[in-house]
Amino acid sequence: MYVGVDVGGTKVLAVELTGEGDDLVVASSAQVPMPGRSASDAEVEAAVVQAALEVAAGRPVSGVGVAAAGLVDRPGERVRFGAHLPWRDAPVRDRLAERIGAPVVLDNDANCAAHAELAAGALRGVSSALLITVGTGIGGAVVLDGRVVRGANGMAGEFGHVQVVPDGLACECGLRGCWEQYCSGRTLERVMRVALGSHLDGREVEALARAGDPVARQAFATVGTWLGVGIAGLVSSFDPEKVVVGGGVSAVGDLLLEPARRGLVDAIQATAYRDLPPVVATRFGPEAGAVGAALLMTSRG
Ligand SMILES: [Zn+2]
């Protein structure tokens, strides 16, 4: 069996797939809390192994695909940097392969999500697209000619750390004013903390918004508007057929996507003279990265 594991800022998610094409689904999954940015490399890698073995449930593992929220080198051997992960130029692929005793493939989480959506999701048959994941931070992938663009160093699509506010909010990457500081799960938490004076995690904000709480809905509207503004810049740059949005924050659907669509229209030039791409949800949602990692492993295994 092959397992896909997504290593994000707050959790490690492992999945096993079954079926193909439109019938491809997650057969089982397991989730382990992320040990945190200050954890050691070994602690994070132990969490990855734990999640993979929970999904395997005693069966032998033939290979593991790993989707990492950060800069992965072009050969897929090392995580060079992750704003929300402790890995720094770490040979993650080989260390995990040794721990698990099976082959490992490694790629950026948003690239993996794009692979999943191209193979069996919202990007099937689509030639040019942008994929944005909104979770703890923002991940991104560019699809051109039906393929994920890797860039000279394997690091294309890191939209989350494009500066949108000079001298703006401090980001975990070390810069200030990065897009993800205004458009992420962390932003939701910050907006709610300012409004209510108490801490709520993303899931709690989502539950409030679904129940109609005006403060929570406004928090999603704020994040969604920033999402649209960022997408406008990317649409100006790439002129894609379609924009797909995934990641944990996107689980609320149109509460996030409607303000994003409006933000796109308001922030792009010449709307009367161009066709704007649809902004839609990924098929695999917060599991897209793990699904794509499993598919990468399967296609190479
Ligand atoms: Zn940043």
Automatic annotation (TrEMBL):
Source species: Nocardioides immobilis
InterPro entries, A to Z: ATPase_NBD, ROK, ROK_cs
PANTHER family the record matches: GLUCOKINASE (PTHR18964:SF173), ROK (REPRESSOR, ORF, KINASE) FAMILY (PTHR18964)
Pfam family, any one: ROK
PROSITE patterns reported in the protein's UniProt record: ROK
Family to which the UniProt record says this protein belongs: Belongs to the ROK (NagC/XylR) family.
Protein name, per record: ROK family protein
